[in-house]
Amino acid sequence: MNLRQLEVFYAIMQTGTVSGAARNLHVSQPNVTRILAHTEQQLGFGLFERVKGRLVPTVEAKTLLPEAEKVYQQLGQFRSLTNKVKLGHQHLRIGAPPILATKLLTPVIAQMSRDQELSFELLTANRDELCAGLLKHELDVAIAFGDEAPPAVLAETLLTQSLKVLVPSDRVDHLPTELTLDDLINSPLPIIGLDSRDPLGLLLHQSLIARDEHYHHPISVRGYSAAAELVKHQAGLAIVDPWTAAQYQDDEAVCMLPLKPDIQFSVSILCAEHSPQSIAVKQFISALQCSF
């Protein structure tokens, strides 16, 4: 018994008539009659007997019904799943550094979750870990600082921004209105370093070494928020991304200043090169791009 025959058998069992089965299946009555006759011929026994205009199931039909119901239920679940996949109703695993996950991704995820009933898993990690997750198929898509990517990972620039300077508020009066890297290097307060394995840390390191090859950070951190907190405690100056800086704009102990000339950086969308993007991933990327 193929799936079409199963559908006809189950529909007749539910309605008791050929006409009722035809309505449920959105086909003609002759079509249902023909399929039923062909099914009984293949099986070698009857499934229904006509009694006062209704089709009464035989003992054999009643024996088949429990297994038919299981198959029919699975068929319905499969159809439901294919409809969800077609509409992009899937589970998405997205990775990003903590600050980008919080500031860039959460609004888009919240909106798509409400509108499309997508389920999400948002993971935070550094760039190297995100790329490894993509290659191991542990992530569907990632957002990261920088525009470089290892082999087998594709990077597409999402946006470009400029680094900001955080200084202790009580030191602002002693600094020029337009800060340069030379001003920061010559400042009595040291520049808090970012880990050079981090894209922004490497960018900052290269920019400083270009002006003073002997510059040394007395304090280095891996996290941008840790650098900002050290500024708050007057341990030095920090050059961080604008989202981290914005989190301290209402803090009386910290002041955010622009840097001249700008030190620009990019934020990229990362995907595994040899893994086709699902409909849901494409929808997420499109929604993310449209949010800027």
UniProtKB/TrEMBL annotation:
Keyword Cell cycle recorded: no
Domain of life per record: Bacteria
GO term, biological process aspect, one: positive regulation of gene expression
Domain HTH lysR-type: 1-58
Entry's family note: Belongs to the LysR transcriptional regulatory family.
GO molecular function list: DNA-binding transcription factor activity; sequence-specific DNA binding
Lineage: Bacteria, Pseudomonadati, Pseudomonadota, Gammaproteobacteria, Vibrionales
Keywords, comma-separated and alphabetical: DNA-binding, Transcription, Transcription regulation
Protein name: LysR family transcriptional regulator
Signal peptide, first to last residue: none
